Task: structure prediction
Amino acid sequence: MSDNNNLTPNESSSVNSVSDLALGKHSDIPLWIAIIPLLLLVSLLSGNVFIYGDDAVSGSNQVILMLSAALTAALAMFYKTPWKAIEKGISQSLLVATPAMLILLMVGALSGTWLLSGIIPTMIYYGLQILDSSWFLVAAVIISSIVAVFTGSSWTTSATIGIALMGIGQVLGIAPGLIAGAVISGAYFGDKMSPLSDTTNLAAATTGTELFTHIRYMMLTTVPSISITLVLFLFLGLGTEQQSTTESETIANTLQQSLNITPWLLLVPLAVLIMIIRKIPALPAIFIGVVLGAIFALIFQVDQVRTAGGSGDYALYQGIMQACFGDIAIATGDPLLDELLTAGGISGMLGTIWLIISAMMFGGTMEASGFLKRITTALMNRAQSIRGLISTTAGTCLFSNATTSDQYLSIVVPGRMFTESFKERGLAPQNLSRTLEDTGTVTSVLVPWNTCGAYHASVLGVATLSYAPFAFFCLISPFMTLLFASTQYKMARQ
Result:
């Protein structure tokens, strides 16, 4: 993922306690009963997307998740699950998601102050000088990969360089879904390959695999996946209509006329990246980025700050506050730039936080009721061969991402469930850790109500279902691990 470079003790204990609840004793619930809430959820969400399109995440999806949670709770209580157990499951599920929600609040403030200070426009300005539309998508994958490797965080990558790449790409005339797919592909590749990543460490620890053994073994499937991804984006980039030099220069000149564009502003994102690389947790690092953005706004864009704050003795103070919590816009007179140079501050993230809360309610109820355990046990009983075992593990990761709405649980729960099965078949633990990453880590961003899908959609300003078809690395990785399972190529033995 992810929202922090390393799991804190509180986060680790939260993940373990929820997992213990999911793996604990449960009533002998019929499988068809356990599946009912999931069928309701999928059918209503599908209809919702058909009716509302990208606006489904504005509120209707949240209502459906809460309705599905209510049905799950009612069925669970009918099968003698105490309400206190359900309540505990929801509370612990929300506890796991709390760091993600806090980071979303800070990212909202970051986007506002970085816009008002001219940091984001400056990154767009200089990006236009060096990036060309024909190879921009490939460059976006590579740049995002490098940042994610050094920070260990796909979340930080999207919130920093990802926002800038979205602006540059749209100015070059590239569809937002394509740009977001390239950013996310690179971010999740770098996240998986980084020893600083929390999910990489979590997958290794859950399965008892040495960290660098896990990373080296992942390269067997990850390198082909990212190579195919780069080829696909190169092909798509070559088919992109070229933006004329005159148009790019016009946009760059407009930025210069509207704001004080200076390389000094790039010190702020550089400082945030250095803090993350030095293992300062994401939340305080982003908070410092907000403060620096506000300070630089007062230094370099005082007129813009005063305009944002309105007239009065406290206009500068009000302008900074507006950038942190509310809507902010830079007027340039160019329709495309005016659309790009907007931010919603903290208030713009509240819909995403509501989505995460609703999703965690459903996930916590599914775990506490024993429904999740019942379904995954049925899946596990079908795993007779090595190919079947890995396929079942992959399917359980995907199922966990869709039902628990949390990336951590899609690694921990299947990891603990299948450890003994892998041992019984003589497979080394890195086979399991790789499967968890190839399917659990990368597919979380493809689920609109998962914390990862909701986060990236909100930060990049592109609906999950709009970028998902172009998040090639995340789509290819599960198939790559299944291909290796089918051929049993390079399957390490104990």
Q: What stands out?
A: The beta strands are 328-329, 342-343. The first strand starts at residue 328 and ends at 329. The chain has two domains: 9-100+349-487, 116-300. The two ends are 29 Å apart (CA to CA).
